[in-house]
């Protein structure tokens, strides 16, 4: 295989704005600092994977506005293959403002999701056939479903980071091998807040592996072998932006390495937690050495449920 992971999904430019705390409505506050970064669930996961030594190709699109060149330059600098991506003339790139509350360690996001996407007929199917894993975020709906179908037919593992409920989930999920979602997705999609029931329900819809993340309450992993829960690593959280994306990337790394599921879950939890100690999703990405030190020196509470 030429690529470890081929990703398809949203790419945006994030404008990170650090505030002492969120101002009340119709009020002003001073900005501590601000910065621009390239984000999106799939690109962020792939940048982590690339830095950890995996070969990645990204399939996506951006506009010919002021943000388009930034996206292309950034992803190229991170060694992502962009041959299957496109610049769509006359369109706007994805953009998001991320207000980070330094005191609370939370973030509020207002985003412009692109209105123009690559269509199924635009895909280079050979790139998909050369992947060990295909990583998706659910956008764009038709192209995402088609990619999953092509990948499964070719024997390629299909993974989804379902950050939020998107159209067509009920059609896409049966084609998945691996699915990651935050706990709120269970309420949105299954109308349940019961993690154990929700995780098992997703598993029954097709995936072989399902993970559910829940911030400071840790993460769950569901498979045919049962359910595992890993408690969150206590950290001083500065910025949770991209934590779920990083968790997904670390999860895929562990699966590519064919580790036992207990170790895969611990690795993903630690990687996401370390990211939260720093601002953004690039400078914040931990190195493999940093992750390994924590795994070797910090005790993580891992339990088997059900």
Description:
33% of the residues lie in helices and 28% in strands. It is of the alpha/beta class and 306 residues long. It has one domain: UDP-N-acetylmuramoyl-L-alanine:D-glutamate ligase, CATH 3.40.1190. The strands form three sheets. Strands 6-4-1-10-11-12-13-14-15-16 form a ten-stranded mixed sheet, sandwiched between helices. It has a four-stranded mixed sheet with strand order 3-2-8-9. Helix 8 packs antiparallel against helix 9. The radius of gyration is 18 Å and the shape is globular. The chain starts with a strand and ends with a strand. This is Ribokinase. Its EC number is 2.7.1.15. It is an enzyme of class 2 (transferase).
Q: Strands, helices and their partners?
A:
Layout lengths: L2 E6 L3 E8 L11 E9 L1 H11 L4 E4 L1 E3 L4 H10 L2 E2 L4 E3 L5 E8 L4 E7 L12 H5 L1 E6 L4 H13 L3 E5 L7 H4 L5 E5 H8 L4 H10 L4 E5 L5 E5 L2 E5 L12 H14 L4 H16 L11 H10 L4 E4 L1
Parallel strand pairs: 1-4, 1-10, 2-8, 4-6, 5-7, 10-11, 11-12, 12-13
Antiparallel strand pairs: 2-3, 8-9, 13-14, 14-15, 15-16
Helix pairs in contact: 1-8, 8-9, 9-10
Keywords: Kinase, Transferase
EC number: 2.7.1.15
InterPro entries: Carboh/pur_kinase_PfkB_CS (IPR002173), Ketohexokinase-related (IPR052562), PfkB_dom (IPR011611), Ribokinase-like (IPR029056)
